[in-house]
Amino acid sequence: MFRSSQDVMLCLLVASLFFFLYLVMQVVKDILNQSSFEESWVLRLCVNFAGYSCILVPGFVAYKFVKATEYLDRTDLGCFGRFVRLCLGDADPDLMKTIESSAPTLTQVRSPSKKALQLLYCFGGLQTSYLIWGVLQEKIMTQEYRNSSDETDSFKDSEFLVFVNRVLAFAFSGIHLIFTRHPRHNCPLYKYVYCSLTNILSSWCQYEALKFVTFPTQVLVKASKIIPVMVMGKIVSKKKFEYYEYVTAVMMSVGMVMFLLNNSGEHKGVKETTVSGIVLMAMYMAMDSFTSNWQSKLFSTYNMSSVQMMCGVNLFSCLFTAVSLLSQGLLFNSFLFMTKFPSFAMDCFLLSLCSATGQLFIFYTISTFGPVVFVIITTLRQVFAILLSCIIYNHHLSTFAVFGVSIIFIALFLRIYCNQRLRNIRKQQSRGSSQG
């Protein structure tokens, strides 16, 4: 009886908070519809975050209720209680030891020809997925669509693009988990909330920034995100960095300054970089840096697979964006835009497909060849993405801007070389000490 009463209280608490916040969002939406809401990305971001609070606030209250009432300490939890423990419980230390002891120790021997084919497969998959994704991303956010009735309109809702990307990524990762073997999952689901939230916010900033900056500018800013990753690593994980990492970070900063100062909007087809675009890209880098550092922390703590991480993060991303879009009444409008402009629906599907398959190629490349090869392929992809965007959308790069781009990519390759050289030196030193 006591167990059932606690279950009912928890359900009522979560449900009442959710519907109360949802109704508040409806009132806010009606007020904002009478103002210039669509013209301000700051207001849109605040409203999006208010939509996420429909899940965040009830979840936080449920967590506090479970801890305060010692809900999970009972032995007669039942089906609902086991679900609550899956979401809000702590990791099982005995299972953690089992996972660590059962980690695979065998390495697969591959012939040189097979390694070459696998490398070609990874290179082609990553380049194809993300180059098409970049072209479609710029097209959706910057170009007008035309239908058979000769009507034209442009799509402006960045959050819907995040939503469809995450839905397909969640479906892909879920199917992958069903048909392949992975370690036993021991991470409380609420741990994914932090990186899921920053992940969707960083993606939203990335899409929204294309309204204010050119795609080449965005690619270069993303290539230089090592700087905020280092800063966030210091804050979140207390990491230490080598001197060459600071040198290459400074080189990237100089290259970015040269590119931004000399790639002005004087030529046809070039969009001028605005303060809003710079702020949005700075927010993107900060959020994305936290996401990667938090995911690294979860990997090291719970020994999960990359696909399990992909599935967990995208699960909450789907929930956050779906509730936010529904509370703002934008989900139906976006689907209506799809029916009105079928070419947009196709672009949207291909964008999501490339994003999801690209994530799977990332995991496969890192697990097969390691992070160094993956970084080299990604760096080359960024060069190709800039060239492709300039050719398709007529972006002009001044000579000084090209020099800034060169400095950034020289710094990237120098960083890769130094990382690999330092790793080899440490391996030789460890072998020497073990032999001695």
Which characteristics define this entry?
436 residues, mainly alpha, membrane, transmembrane, SCL35B1-4/HUT1
Describe the 3D structure.
The chain has 436 residues and is mainly α. Helices cover 78% and strands 1% of the residues. Strands 1-2 form a two-stranded antiparallel sheet. Strand 1 and strand 2 form a beta hairpin.
Topology (elements, then pairings):
Blueprint: H1 2-32, H2 41-68, H3 78-88, H4 93-101, H5 112-142, E1 145-146, E2 152-153, H6 158-179, H7 192-209, H8 215-223, H9 226-237, H10 243-262, H11 275-302, H12 306-328, H13 330-340, H14 342-369, H15 371-393, H16 399-435
Antiparallel strand pairs: 1-2
Helix pairs in contact: 1-2, 2-12, 5-14, 5-15, 6-7, 6-12, 6-14, 7-11, 7-12, 8-10, 8-15, 9-11, 10-16, 13-14, 14-15, 15-16
Subcellular location: Membrane
Membrane topology: Multi-pass membrane protein
GO molecular function: 3'-phosphoadenosine 5'-phosphosulfate transmembrane transporter activity
Cα distance, first to last residue? Answer: 67 Å
* Strand order in the largest sheet: 1-2
Describe the largest sheet: 2 strands, antiparallel
Number of helices: 16
Total number of β-strand segments? 2
> What sequence of helices (H) and strands (E) makes up the elements?
HHHHHEEHHHHHHHHHHH
Rounded to the nearest angstrom, the radius of gyration is 24 Å
Task: Report mean pLDDT, rounded to a whole number.
Answer: 81
Oligomer state of the chains in this structure: single chain
Question: Hey, roughly how much beta strand do the residues contain?
Answer: under 5%
Low-confidence stretches: 99-107, 264-271
The best one-word shape is globular
Helix percent reads over 70%
Classification by helices and strands? mainly alpha
